[in-house]
Amino acid sequence: MSKINVHLHFDGRCWEALQFYEKCLGGKILFSMTWGESPAAKEVPADWGKKIIHASLEFDGHSLSADDAPPGSYAKPQGFNIMLSYDETAKAEKIFKALSEKGKILMPFGKTFWAEGFGMFQDQFGVPWMISGKGVEIK
How far is CA 80 from CA 57, 96, 102, in A? Predict the structure, then answer.
């Protein structure tokens, strides 16, 4: 059996983002290593030593990993969304409100023809999300 895992790159704010996601998603950061703690320390500027080379967060049986891209190699995320689907629309709305704090709402959370609740946003770190509540039966 294989699993898909989302791995996010940040421009120096990885630790801040993971702590935010941990709080919003009720997860736990399981692993974190800085560039300075790794064998790759000499490949980045000295002031990058406290930035994250690899970290992982677990929530609701899922995992998300992330890093701070080396200086000059970060690119803004585009062409995808992280989608979280919940059986309970109230929980989906709560997650939407928490994760979208200080972000940019692209589609407010509300009822659609395919779900009791759905919304889209870009979080304060530039990561695009879609949050869905219980789907509706289409006849």
Answer: 20, 17, 20
